[in-house]
Design a protein that fits this description.
This protein is α+β, with helices and mostly antiparallel strands. The protein contains eleven helices and eight strands. It has an eight-stranded antiparallel β-sheet with strand order 1-6-8-7-3-4-2-5, covered by helices on one side. The radius of gyration is 21 Å and the shape is globular. The N and C termini lie far apart (about 45 Å).
Length: about 290
Amino acid sequence: MTAALHNYHARMQRVLDHIDRHLDDDLDLDALSSVAAYSKFHFHRQFTATFGLSVHRYIQLARMKRASYRLAYGDAESVTDIAMDAGYDAPDAFARAFRQRFGQSPSSFRKSPDWEPWLAAFGPLDNARSKFMQKTFTTDDVTIRDVPTTAVAIMEHRGEPATLPTTIQRFIAWRKAAGLHPRTSPTFNVWRSERRPASPADYSVDLCVGTDQPVEPNGEAIRCGEIPGGRCAVLRVVGNTGNLEPAALYLYRDWLPASGEEARDFPIYCQRLSFVPEVPDHEATADLFLPLR
């Protein structure tokens, strides 16, 4: 029974992976049922029963999430191009669907996103993915590196996790104005609190960009600091890097006790090597660092 269930989960995982990699393609039931190796007459019912939403709804949400990231974090693409990539024949149809889901027009969201309805709208998608997109790690995935001290400019986020996207948007705008592009200036997140503290207001993370040059705050609360060098256990995560908690739990709960190592007095942090929307969600990559004595 366990082997059969594992096989079932693996087949459904293949479907989610295929959708991620082919969002711009015609994802019809024939193609997806073939990926899962299930009868097309039953596949859509199996998918809905497994994930709590239909295949069509899942694909809609995945495309809309990609579109919303492009609107909020990029300014090079037109709303028309984003609408077409989301599967809509015309910008007005996309605008109606976007407003119905988020309570804002695409252009208004681009200027000033309201993240609370955005988070609520993608709850079903995130819940569906969390069932079968969990990563498993082994000791072979962890390396120990001696990392150099890195000078960084820091924008602090202090407050509820739901407001973090607004801080990220401000951070992106600031670093663009400062000329600190991700391709030339590394990006780090340093977690100062649990992902889900007892009081959401206590959530704390530093958004950092590597630079040893003087920085202009330009109206933002920016301070200079450093990420100290030393030995670190490093775990690379590819895909779904918006939630690195499973990787952090593996390092703390499984790898560290078995390794004989001791954690150093500096928080766990990550370096983001590639980002959504510059790359698809399944290609986003981050290295997670656990400082060691």
